[in-house]
Amino acid sequence: MISCVEGKIIFKGERFVIIDANGVGYRIFAGPDVLRKAKTKEQFKLWTHLYLREDTIELYGFLEYAELEFFQTLIQISGIGPKSGLGVLAVAPLDTLKRAIAAGETSYLTQVSGIGKKIAEKIILELRDKLGKIGFAGEENVFLKEEGDILQALRILGYSYSEARDAIKQLSPNIAGTQNRVKEALKILGKS
C-alpha cells in the first residue's frame, strides 16, 4: 500500500497533481486545499489512500494524516465513494465537519454534489458514535450555526466555498458576533 508520496510536482490538473518521486510519477486526486497549495516544480508531500476497484486504481492525497483517516472512515459508508469523500472534506475544515456530524447538522454534507438529505443522515448516523468517542458529541451547536451563517453570507456576496472557508479558518477566536466575524472575513478576503 502507498501511504504517502513525497517529491516534486511535475503537473497540476483541475482535480489532481502528478508528483515525481524518484523517477516515478504518481497521479494523486486531491481536494481544493491541496491543489491551491501545490506549486509546480516544488517539493510536496501528501498522505495517500490507494483506492482499488475492478477497473480502477487511484490515489487520493491529503495534507494532514487526520484528513486521510476521516476520508477512509467516510468512504466505508455505503453510497460514499472517494470523489464524494473529497467533496465532503472540501466543504469545511475537518474539526467543523466532525462537530457538525456529532451535532446531527446535515447542512454541511448536503452542499456536496450527489449527497442529499438521506445520504447526509446516513453519514451522521454511521459516524456520530465514532466521533462521540473522540470528544465531539455534546458540544454546543452555536459555533456551527454561526460558522454556517458566516459561510452563507460570504457565498451570497459572491465568494466560493473554498474562499469563504479559508477566510473563516483565519478568523480570530476573539472576535464575537456573527456580523463582526463576517466583517473580519471580508477584510481577510480583501487582502488576498
What Rg, in angstroms, do the CA atoms define?
17 Å
Give the distance, in angstroms, between the N- and C-terminal Cα atoms.
39 Å
The fold-level CATH name of the largest domain is OB fold (Dihydrolipoamide Acetyltransferase, E2P)
Query: What is the percentage of strand-forming residues?
Result: 15-25%
Supply the number of helical segments: 8
Looking at CATH, the homologous superfamily of the largest domain is Nucleic acid-binding proteins
Report the biggest beta sheet as strand number plus sense, adding barrel if it closes. 5 strands, mixed, barrel
Structural class by helix and strand composition: alpha+beta
Poorly predicted runs are 134-142
- Principal-axis shape equals globular
Give the tally of structural domains.
3
CATH class of the largest domain: Mainly Beta
Task: Quickly list its features.
Holliday junction branch migration complex subunit RuvA, DNA recombination, DNA polymerase, domain 1, about 190 residues, DNA damage, NA-bd_OB-fold, about 50% helix, alpha+beta
Characterise the protein shown here.
Residues 134-142 have low confidence and may be disordered. Helices cover 48% and strands 21% of the residues. Strands 1-2-3-5-4 form a 5-stranded mixed beta barrel. It has helices spanning 32-37, 65-74, 82-91, 94-103, 117-133, 142-156, 161-170, 178-191; strands spanning 4-12, 16-21, 24-30, 43-53, 56-62. The protein has 8 helices and 5 strands; from the N terminus they run βββαββααααααα. It is globular, with a radius of gyration of 17 Å.
